[in-house]
Write a structure and sequence with these properties.
The chain is mainly alpha-helical. It has a domain of 165 residues: MetI-like (MetI-like fold, Orthogonal Bundle). Helix content is 69%, strand content 4%. It is built from 13 helices and two strands. A two-stranded antiparallel ribbon has the order 1-2. Strand 1 and strand 2 form a beta hairpin. Helix 2 crosses helix 13, helix 4 runs antiparallel to helix 10 and helix 5 packs across helix 8.
Amino acid sequence: MATATTTKTQASRQAGRTPTGRMTKSRLAVVLLSPTMLCLALVIGYPVVSALRLAFQMQSERIDKTTGFLTTTTSFGLGNFTDAFTGDEASRFFNAFWNTTTFTVVSVGIEVVIGVAMALVMHQAVRGRALVRAAILVPWAIPTAISGLLWRWVFASDGIANNLLHAHVLWTADGFPAWCAVVIADTWKTAPFIGLLVLAGLQTIPAEVYEAARLDGASGWKSFSRITLPLVRPVLVVAVLFRLLDVLRMFDLPYVLIGPRKGSVETLTMIAVDEMQNLHFGAASAYAVVLFLYIAAVATVFVSVLGADVLGTSGRKRPAR
């Protein structure tokens, strides 16, 4: 009888509950996480639901003939979305969509090349390596608004850029030079982010792998393409994913560097903020919802195609049944 009781007690403990009926580990985790989840629901969930509601809310103003006052009528529908794609602001919306996409593709592409090169340089056992790593962190540590002001001084008509090029380019005016200025400033600031993540991946590669490749007569390019890139690929994919999501919602850098309502650099976030400042909350929410769906689609395709292990679950072993 005592043996049966002991066996039952051990089985109940293995199941995560004590014989006295106290809460299981899963219930305890729920209780401990509930304050955090409540804060997230208030800080994130409520604004998201409110934005969705405003996106479908349309307001029309008219003068009441009986009183002579201006009255506002509220209705719900898809008018804000149809106006974005086919209304008077459709050209502005598609221009902002194009700018957002081109900024993302070009900036992230350049940052990947420069970031990987920076990681390879920092990974070499040279004198002053710690100083180089600290210096590379400086652009990334500067707030985006401050870096925008710094680059605005560089790209001024009498700034350093024109002095070096011996030209008089209007970098901060509306046009292709303004688009290039935003790409240059964004690459300068965020390439170290990719470089640091790739450096962390390089440090996990055993040195014996490169020694074996060297003994087999592999060249430097073959070692890089056959060893370094495949082993760094999981870290690089996650870094690129984070940068994609960051550039797609870019607002502060072109706003500070070039200015608002500049067609060559206006992004989806900028037109959403502009509509909100003009008290067009429905249109601003519609732009925000479209941008959210665009980011979600890009992230889903990127993860499914390239297999970005964002949650770090690929290395976990499944429990045996």
